[in-house]
Amino acid sequence: MRFAAVVATGVLIAGAPAAGASEAAVPEESRTRLAVTVYGNDFALIQDRRRIALEAGERSLSFTGVSRQLVPSSAFVAAADGVRVLSLEYRFDLLTPEALLRHALGREVGVVRTHPTDGTETVEPAEVLSVESGVVLRYRDRIETGVPGRLVFHAAPEGLVPIPTLAAGVAVEGPGEHDLDLVYLTNGLSWQADYVLQLNEAAGRLALTGWATVQNLTGTTFPEASLGLMAGDVRRVTPPGPPPRPMARADAVMAMEAAPDRPEREALADLHLYTVAEPVTLPDRQSRQLVLLSATDVPYARLYVSESRPAVLRAGGPDRLDTHPEVRLSFENDPETGPGEPLPAGIVRVFGHDAGAVLRFLGEQHIAHVPVGRPVEISPGRAFDITVNRVQTEFTRAGLAEDAFESAHRITVTNAKAEPVTVTVIERITGDWTILAESLPHEKTAADRAEWAVEVPAEGSTTLTYRVRVRR
């Protein structure tokens, strides 16, 4: 089936149906297919197919049930042979009390007052002078601010709609049923990856479960949709003048519902698409969770890393305060050992069991996208029982070139644990540097990084010393 398309600009564009052309509703009940592709940065692609019987001629078709945060410039309607799309118009000026007042500016309304004792009501006419920062009303003999009672409007202004509507002007060649595909981008729909990582410290293994949390704040429910989640970075240029985003109500409910089936993953261009097998309803102002991946018995290593930028171009001053090294949990995203799946960016929450087998939260960290075959490193916090103290013991420029500096440093690592540990000590040294002397061998892992693997005995300490010359 061949389709023709036209793009909406948010206002009526050239080629509209002739004056007096009839308007036909294309309600949600005429929907035959709904596909929702949700991206990570608060937007989604909606593909909404509807079938309607049309007579020949030009007419306007009004699509209801569209997102309140539809991006007008992204919308288009694709129609089968026999239907030519002439124009699109997005009507988002909703019928609200504020809109009624705005349209009543300079016109007469009725002010209803209720008698405080007998409850009788009287209606007094008044002209709306202003609605900026409050309402200003002109009565026959006075001007008042504020509304003492209810307001009565004599008619609904033209152009206001009870719900957001997208109207398409079409020319139909012959009568019959026709499929129309409404496609648009919308803000307010997003998803994010969240991970639960459980440690088995005795076995040196971890279990990782990835969840996708989908949130709908579009102001519209998407029922029985074919749901896809796109993982990766997609460039977007925000169009000017989108309709205002609805404010969150205080009584909004964010319910969580887990879907039983794991989505199917496929590579799409340079992204990853997760497709849910069964149709999913995305209620407005709710979120739901779906399992993305699950891996058990993944080997991991626990690392302790202490990183600092020492003073090498000046005297370091008094002794530094004690610090504690970062705890880093490292594992390979390997197909053989697990998980062996692309890991979309998200928050990893780390849990462990205490001696009574009670689960305890140990910390969390955000990770970037991790492809298969790359290492994963998570730092949930710092080591309580390991202390690192750094001291600059000497600084001199005597006898050196004008651009040269020389300093000596002592780093003491203390371990209060009942088992030995190895702490990776990293010094970020600026300039052109050379280690002149050291108590342990270092490795230059980058232009500004010197690393030492410091082994510390149980309930003991180890001191690392080094002397460095820097030219700038």
Please provide a written account of the structure.
A hairpin with a 4-residue loop joins strand 15 and strand 16. Among the domains are: 118 residues, Sandwich (Immunoglobulin-like); 56 residues; 114 residues, Immunoglobulin-like. 1% of the residues lie in helices and 55% in strands. The protein contains 1 helix and 34 strands. With 472 residues, it is mainly β. The N terminus is likely disordered. The strands form 6 sheets. Strands 1, 3, 4, 6, 14, 17, 19, 20 and 21 form a 9-stranded mixed β-sheet that branches. It has a 6-stranded mixed β-sheet with strand order 18-22-16-15-25-26, with no helix packed on it. The longest helix has 7 residues. It starts with a strand and ends with a strand.
Short structural description:
The chain has one helix at residues 97-103; strands at residues 4-7, 22-26, 31-39, 43-54, 57-63, 76-79, 83-91, 108-114, 121-130, 136-138, 143-145, 150-152, 165-172, 176-187, 189-200, 205-216, 222-231, 258-259, 264-268, 271-275, 280-282, 286-299, 301-308, 326-332, 346-353, 359-367, 375-382, 386-396, 404-415, 421-428, 432-438, 443-446, 449-456, 460-471.
